[in-house]
């Protein structure tokens, strides 16, 4: 008997700074994007509706949600919670 592997759909939600409810950017992909961890810096300069010209987002928490959809595929969502911080060289170099 052959084991059936289910397709995986990947979802990434990055929340507004300081919010656990308001999604700023939602992405859906067929492959995982990248690993995101607490303390990482995300630059939203190219996102629609950005209001942080000299600021970046610092990841304060990450939540993983995994589910199976009717035996047809797996859903994997990473929820990224952030705070806005000044985008300085020292911050980017890990000196703060």
How does this structure look, described?
It is a single chain. With 96 residues, the chain is mostly beta strands. The chain has one domain (7-92). Helices cover 4% and strands 49% of the residues. It is built from one helix and five strands. It has one helix spanning 89-92; strands at 7-15, 23-29, 41-42, 55-69, 73-86. A five-stranded mixed sheet has the order 2-1-5-4-3, with no helix packed on it. The termini are far apart. The mean pLDDT is 86.
- Globally, the shape reads elongated
The main β sheet shows up as:
5 strands, mixed
User: What sequence of helices (H) and strands (E) makes up the elements?
Assistant: EEEEEH
Q: How many structural domains in the coordinates?
A: 1
How many runs of DSSP E, i.e. beta strands?
5
Q: What does the radius of gyration come to? A: 16 Å
Question: Taking strands numbered 1, 2, ... along the chain, how are they ordered across the largest sheet?
Answer: 2-1-5-4-3
Structural class: mainly beta
Secondary structure elements and their pairing?
Layout: E1 7-15, E2 23-29, E3 41-42, E4 55-69, E5 73-86, H1 89-92
Parallel strand pairs: 1-5
Antiparallel strand pairs: 1-2, 3-4, 4-5
Q: What is the structure about, briefly put?
A:
This protein is mainly beta and 96 residues long.
Observed structural traits:
96 residues; mainly beta; five-stranded mixed sheet; 5 strands
């Amino acid at each position: 008997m052959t084991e059936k592997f289910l397709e995986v759909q990947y979802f990434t939600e990055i929340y507004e700074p300081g919010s656990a409810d308001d999604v700023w950017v939602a992405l859906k992909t067929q492959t995982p994007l990248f690993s995101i961890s607490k303390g990482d810096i995300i630059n939203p300069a190219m996102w629609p509706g950005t209001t942080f010209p000299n600021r970046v987002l610092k990841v304060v928490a990450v939540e993983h949600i995994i589910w199976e959809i009717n035996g047809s595929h797996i859903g994997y969502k990473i929820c990224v919670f952030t705070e806005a911080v000044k985008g300085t060289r020292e911050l980017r170099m890990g000196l703060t």
